[in-house]
Amino acid sequence: MEQKRLGRQTVALARPPVLTGWAGVAGKKEGEGPLAAQFHYVSQDDSFGEKSWEKAESAMQRMALSAALDQAGRTASELDYALAGDLLNQCISSSFALRGQEVPFYGLYGACSTMAESLSLAALLLDGGFGARAAAVTSSHFCSAERQYRTPLEYGSQRTPTAQWTVTGAGAVVLETEGAGPRVTHVTTGKIVDKGVKDPANMGAAMAPAAYDTIRAHLAETGRKPSFYDLIVTGDLGELGREIVLDFFHRDGVELKNLSDCGLLVYDLERQDVHCGGSGCGCSAVALTSLFLPGLKQGRWKHILFCGTGALLSPTSTQQGESIPGICHAVALEGPA
Amino acid sequence: MEQKRLGRQTVALARPPVLTGWAGVAGKKEGEGPLAAQFHYVSQDDSFGEKSWEKAESAMQRMALSAALDQAGRTASELDYALAGDLLNQCISSSFALRGQEVPFYGLYGACSTMAESLSLAALLLDGGFGARAAAVTSSHFCSAERQYRTPLEYGSQRTPTAQWTVTGAGAVVLETEGAGPRVTHVTTGKIVDKGVKDPANMGAAMAPAAYDTIRAHLAETGRKPSFYDLIVTGDLGELGREIVLDFFHRDGVELKNLSDCGLLVYDLERQDVHCGGSGCGCSAVALTSLFLPGLKQGRWKHILFCGTGALLSPTSTQQGESIPGICHAVALEGPA
Prior knowledge:
Two copies of one chain form a homodimer.
Chain A (H helix, E strand, L loop, with lengths): L9 E3 L5 E9 L14 E2 L10 H20 L8 E6 L5 H7 L6 E3 L6 H14 L5 E8 L1 H8 L15 E2 L2 E8 L6 E6 L14 H20 L8 E4 L3 H14 L7 E3 H4 L12 E2 L1 H17 L5 E9 L3 H5 L6 E9 L3
Parallel strand pairs in A: 2-3, 4-5, 4-6, 7-12, 10-11, 10-13
Antiparallel strand pairs in A: 1-9, 2-8, 6-8, 9-14, 13-14
Helix pairs in contact in A: 1-2, 5-6
């Protein structure tokens, strides 16, 4: 058998799966941001026609999956696996979105790293020879997240300067063993990293050490220089978290000039009052499906290292005085052959 | 490449991974039940020396993983992957248990099917050639689950007759590509099945259709008769859920004489006042690690179909009038060669 494992965290895929379809669905605020023109669908009503924010989030996932399947020219019945997760308690957005699709399903919890986690596992399952097609799906919704994690919207709470804004959005990608499109060539699985940050309004700082850890491992284990990638992009570290990662690399004598963050790409930070940037599973999901994958397909970029970042806390863990464990999964994407 | 996929949901592993270490850790009530003598560790104090039930649950996971690694003669640094999940919001038992282990980690959410889901994905990752060793871990705790899903213990709420009792317990298994021990030969991935049951105090009935669906798919796709297995065992359907599965098969003209349920094995239903039986991620996890794997190793059984069952609801989905989506993942286990 071919040697796939390059090091402690990274595997090179022997038969890189192809991304044949993708779609990003977003809410009103996101539809007023820099990615507006690229979303598959933007709702002017964040309820998406549903009776609760939670049901709206499920509706977004279903729309994204359906559109991604359309682009791939496939139906749900042709999927061998669907992998999905979200931020809601017991991941109900995903379970209720995938209910009725009749697809073998694995539920994930990776907080805001879920797009990268689901993409990683989908790619590994296809490369492992277990199926020909898989979907990776995730979502977040500002209103369901605020209600669950912080305070009901009606309270009109003041936000701290380090806070980020949960993206109302969903992303879905379809991977296949055959076809044309961008490919997943490497998967670097994250370890849980916790440097003791306890402020749930500063999750960029909590996740930055995990992002540094995974990106460093990926570069060391693949032997690639940062400049190999047109973009190294983290999930939702925001302004502050990105600076911390840059600082960590700077101390190693590495200037990560091509480091970007989805949290800084989804909104116009000057104009949209989102403090440190976007966050949530939907943040990296809509950036992947509406910016990076189209850009790879069109030849704007050739290599992107997509690094989903997640803060593995809960309101209960914070109430009990715990610090915030972070994780980051990296997926190396390459333009069409 | 060899053909691994047998049908819509089932794959046959080309190089069946070996279970080289396992351990079940349980609470006081479980330690007074039929499996008492087989647990790796039973605490007389359900706090496990921690200051909260949530921290106690994490402590159980760490103990189970540590003991499973000991049995395998391995350390955490030798694991290529750890896969874990639990019932708590944002799966904090798992994240905080795996924090500090320095292991590439994928978080899962499969509700009470998590032992089977983590075992499935761990086996697939090894069979796919992505690593040599992986761990699958899960837990549940009666007190953290009651507080989160139902009412605080202090209220002393009356339980309905169809209710089940969340097992205080954790299980961990170590899988390797080489070694001696029981093996994972097939993985049948569940689809989400929802037949409209809305009563969260009757989760056996909600999950039974998913169990039927997956077991039927497994048998059809492998061409195996039910009698091929010494035991076909569901996760935590309890008395009522098990009867529903038997009834579904009976209508198909199949008598599933060897169908058992972990929820009926962990407690003495006559003596321990648990109504319909045990439930929770820990239920099938302690039955797997303390009964089935030792029994396979000792030759008591040769083939077991281990079917984790999960109810993918949340308190919020129930409050919003939703029915309960169920899922069941099946793993075919075979005694040492």
